[in-house]
């Protein structure tokens, strides 16, 4: 029976045994190791954990109080309170903010030399990017659960969709956040400057959120904003999340939201990998 060592030996041209060159681990192992590494870094700093959990809760608290009067507008009576209308939109908002942090995190690791060390290792560059998006999606899941619990305990959020509807809404938000994460990772591999990255991120975030059905019912918006919102992909993600969480009809919004998120992930991933290889 051959030993583990002898199984790694090959015969060279002189009839002698030489060690077989190590070809590295497989892609799933690389992604797992890199993802857990990012998660340890994210949850190993108690200050990052605290502010990461507080950020969406404070965001929800501010929006629910500042825009509370919107709950009295025509078409809002069926939601039984503005917090029920706002919470699903806040989930998508948190997903977008976490996606922005994916790009910022990749840039930070580039500046600190972590990415440079990864490039010297026998690993796939795609695994580095995929692990970044997966670890941030896991972090997003923790933020969403914390926000939902705070919304129900403190602000009176009552999801009519029950546990099943809330769970599916949460999963949909994770898919949307993962797709958006690829977009900001692609932007980070293209711009490579933190200041420019921040400017582009906020430039994308505010128009997308405020031109969607996040904070106002579409019927209460000006006609041109309503038209823009129908072209805004976040509108479908918010409508589907809202319908699932509240147990309301959502039509084809769920199918469109998932399809748009997957297309966004594929396009963002292709651009990110191409830019990442060119800048090596």
UniProtKB/TrEMBL annotation:
<dbReference type="InterPro" id="IPR047817">
    <property type="entry name" value="ABC2_TM_bact-type"/>
</dbReference>
<dbReference type="InterPro" id="IPR013525">
    <property type="entry name" value="ABC2_TM"/>
</dbReference>
<keyword id="KW-1133">Transmembrane helix</keyword>
<comment type="similarity">
    <text>Belongs to the ABC-2 integral membrane protein family.</text>
</comment>
<feature type="transmembrane region" description="Helical">
    <location>
        <begin position="199"/>
        <end position="218"/>
    </location>
</feature>
<keyword id="KW-0812">Transmembrane</keyword>
<protein>
    <recommendedName>
        <fullName>Transport permease protein</fullName>
    </recommendedName>
</protein>
<keyword id="KW-0046">Antibiotic resistance</keyword>
<keyword id="KW-0472">Membrane</keyword>
<dbReference type="Pfam" id="PF01061">
    <property type="entry name" value="ABC2_membrane"/>
</dbReference>
<dbReference type="GO" id="GO:0046677">
    <property type="term" value="P:response to antibiotic"/>
</dbReference>
<dbReference type="InterPro" id="IPR000412">
    <property type="entry name" value="ABC_2_transport"/>
</dbReference>
<feature type="transmembrane region" description="Helical">
    <location>
        <begin position="87"/>
        <end position="108"/>
    </location>
</feature>
<dbReference type="InterPro" id="IPR051784">
    <property type="entry name" value="Nod_factor_ABC_transporter"/>
</dbReference>
<feature type="domain" description="ABC transmembrane type-2">
    <location>
        <begin position="47"/>
        <end position="279"/>
    </location>
</feature>
<feature type="transmembrane region" description="Helical">
    <location>
        <begin position="140"/>
        <end position="158"/>
    </location>
</feature>
<feature type="region of interest" description="Disordered">
    <location>
        <begin position="1"/>
        <end position="22"/>
    </location>
</feature>
<feature type="compositionally biased region" description="Polar residues">
    <location>
        <begin position="1"/>
        <end position="10"/>
    </location>
</feature>
<feature type="transmembrane region" description="Helical">
    <location>
        <begin position="48"/>
        <end position="67"/>
    </location>
</feature>
<keyword id="KW-0813">Transport</keyword>
<keyword id="KW-1003">Cell membrane</keyword>
<feature type="transmembrane region" description="Helical">
    <location>
        <begin position="164"/>
        <end position="187"/>
    </location>
</feature>
<dbReference type="GO" id="GO:0043190">
    <property type="term" value="C:ATP-binding cassette (ABC) transporter complex"/>
</dbReference>
<dbReference type="GO" id="GO:0140359">
    <property type="term" value="F:ABC-type transporter activity"/>
</dbReference>
<feature type="transmembrane region" description="Helical">
    <location>
        <begin position="253"/>
        <end position="273"/>
    </location>
</feature>
